[in-house]
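// run 5 | inverse folding | seed 20
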């Protein structure tokens, strides 16, 4: 196997900030409010800025500084249609991107919102990772290229992540992220839903978006047409 570096095409799940009114300060305030709801989920997250295709000016310098101050990183800017605007983007030290139109997400979560290339091809699954002990606050478990099964509880402040599905056979009080590399067929199953955040392939809900009827109940969460859906499990 060659030890030399190489460049390859790939697809990743990215947050897309839809900037319709070109107000950089308003966009920064919006992101700050979302980050306050789930700070660890957004910390150092990559972000694509989606313009609306108009010629209105954007203060890209202010936008870049404000977003970086929130510990997010702009990967690039898309939706520009004029060379003059492209030059302004480059002048602010930002990359320009083609395509990657955003799709709507469940409100009010829109984040780390609509995502580019969410339906990325996923590698062949390995056997599931099984965690037999509770996942404590501050812990993060990541099942790369496989499902994750947790036989105990997931505490507040803990995070369980899988490229496949996530199953929690105790109370899910922390954050559960399934389909981390874009698998829209992934799901989240838990025996007691009290999650801080549930995410599948970029679409996500915070705790206040989960309807009360499903709270503290056995639940199955899946993704359909860029939105999450939930049903009660009979266990």
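// decoded
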């Amino acid at each position: 196997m060659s030890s030399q570096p190489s460049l390859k095409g790939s697809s990743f799940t990215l947050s897309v900030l839809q900037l319709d009114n070109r107000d950089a300060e308003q966009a920064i305030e919006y992101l700050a409010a979302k980050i306050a709801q789930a700070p660890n989920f957004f910390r150092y997250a990559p972000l694509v800025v989606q313009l609306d295709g108009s010629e209105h000016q954007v203060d890209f310098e202010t936008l870049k500084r404000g977003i970086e101050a929130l510990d997010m990183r702009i990967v690039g800017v898309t939706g520009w249609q004029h060379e003059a605007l492209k030059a302004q983007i480059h002048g602010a030290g930002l990359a320009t991107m083609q395509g990657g139109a955003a799709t709507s997400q469940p409100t009010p979560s829109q984040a780390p919102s609509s995502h580019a290339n969410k339906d990325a091809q996923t590698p062949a699954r390995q056997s599931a990772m099984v965690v037999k002990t509770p996942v404590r606050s501050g812990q993060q478990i990541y099942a790369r290229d496989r499902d994750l099964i947790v036989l105990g509880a997931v505490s507040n402040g803990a995070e369980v992540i899988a490229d496949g599905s996530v199953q929690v056979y105790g109370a899910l009080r922390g954050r559960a992220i399934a389909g981390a590399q874009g698998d829209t067929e992934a799901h989240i199953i838990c025996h007691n839903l009290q999650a801080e955040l549930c995410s599948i392939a970029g679409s996500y809900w915070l705790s206040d978006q989960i309807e009360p009827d499903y709270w503290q109940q056995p639940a199955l969460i899946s993704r359909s047409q860029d939105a999450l859906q939930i049903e009660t499990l009979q266990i």
